[in-house]
Each structure stands twice: as C-alpha cells, then as structure tokens.
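Inverse folding, one chain.
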C-alpha cells in the first residue's frame, strides 16, 4: 500500500505539473511557435502508474532510491563538468554554430524561458524546469526503466549501449524533422549517444540509482551551459 501511494503521488505530480506548465506557457508565450515538452513526461507517468499503482511494485526498480544521496549528487556534478562539458567544448570547437542552433530554437521550452522573461528570472525558471521536470522524466525513462529492464536480460554494458542509441536517436531525429543540416543532426545525435553512455554508466555504477544521472542531466540542461559556452 505504501508503494502504491508513493507511485500515485508521483503520477499526480507529473500530470498536474504538465497541465500547469502548459497553462503557464500558453499564457506567457510571445514567440508564436508551438512549445513542446518532453514526451518522456507522459510516458513515464503511464509506466509509474502501471508498475507502481496497478502492480504495486517498489519504485526502486526504476532507480528511485534514497541510499547514498549526497554521494550520488557529487558524482552527478563530476559527470556534468568532466564529462558533458568537455564533450560540448570539443563540439563547439569543431562545429561552433551547432550549439548556437541548438540553443536558438524558439519552439523549445528552454528558449520559451529565455525569450519571454528577463534575466535572472528566465534562468531561474529554466533551472527549475531542468531539475524538476525535464531531467527526472528522461532519466526515469531511459536509465531507470529502459536500461534497468535491459540489465536484467543482458550484459549491463550492452544495456547501456542500447539505451544510449535510443537516447541519441531521440535527439537526432527531431533535429532532422526541424530541418537542420545533416551534419548538425548527426552531431546532435552523437551528443545524445555519448551523453547516454555517460549517464548510463553513472546509473549502473551507483547501484542503479537515478540521482547521479538526474543531477548531471539537469546541470547540462540548465542555463549554466549557456553561461559557460557563451551561447
């Protein structure tokens, strides 16, 4: 019963959060573009509802664990700064206009905050979004659910590789649909691929705990990336 109540609370939070978020965006959006939120939000809500509420399973199966919380936060910070930021620095050096294109799409949630609110409120809102909605939803889906399931059936590093490919495609395909140049689509997909590997290894090496990849992912999707790389 306790696990069912906890799962129900997460589902309610995701649903209410998504609804309020859409109302908020539609109220303040000045770009004229359709703003989309990650598909991971409704998908993980359905998964948690089925597994946690219907089947009454412990949510640790998707990495929701309390153990070693602050240690894992520290690991997430290290992964963000010495993994992701080094990778992005190389990308910016080789294809300097890719990061400008990535961070300049007016139809994204990130730029909804950047373009509709003044500093520092825009950065505060983007940081809250990254830590509370974006990173948790995608990490619970790709690392917690997909990688966690695959690790039960195969070698963990093969599981990391498969979810990383899916994560890379999730980044590269929308870029292609948006009409990006082919080299930008491929590079953005590769960022997702190698990023998925970093996050997947962090998940596996912290005993399948979602905290480290969540923190790393949220830091990279926060305005800190914009400040560091001047985009």
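Residues assigned per position:
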């Amino acid at each position: 019963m306790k696990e069912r109540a906890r799962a129900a609370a997460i589902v309610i939070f995701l649903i209410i959060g998504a609804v309020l978020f859409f109302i908020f965006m539609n109220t303040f959006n000045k770009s004229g573009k359709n703003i989309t939120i990650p598909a991971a939000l409704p998908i993980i809500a359905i998964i948690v509802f089925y597994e946690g509420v219907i089947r009454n399973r412990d949510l640790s199966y998707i990495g929701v664990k309390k153990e070693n919380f602050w240690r894992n936060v520290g690991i997430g910070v290290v992964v963000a700064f010495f993994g992701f930021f080094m990778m992005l620095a190389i990308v910016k050096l080789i294809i300097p206009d890719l990061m400008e294109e990535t961070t300049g799409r007016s139809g994204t949630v990130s730029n909804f905050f950047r373009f509709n609110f003044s500093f520092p409120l825009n950065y505060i809102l983007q940081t809250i979004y990254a830590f509370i909605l974006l990173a948790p939803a995608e990490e619970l889906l790709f690392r917690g659910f997909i990688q966690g399931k695959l690790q039960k059936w195969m070698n963990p590093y093969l599981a990391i590789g498969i979810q990383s490919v899916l994560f890379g495609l999730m980044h590269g395909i929308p870029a292609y649909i948006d009409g990006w140049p082919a080299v930008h689509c491929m590079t953005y997909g590769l960022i997702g691929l190698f990023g998925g590997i970093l996050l997947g290894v962090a998940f596996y090496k912290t005993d399948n705990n979602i905290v480290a990849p969540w923190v790393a992912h949220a830091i990279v999707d926060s305005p800190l990336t914009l400040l560091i790389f001047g985009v």
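The chain has a mean pLDDT of 88. DSSP finds ten helices and no strands in the chain.
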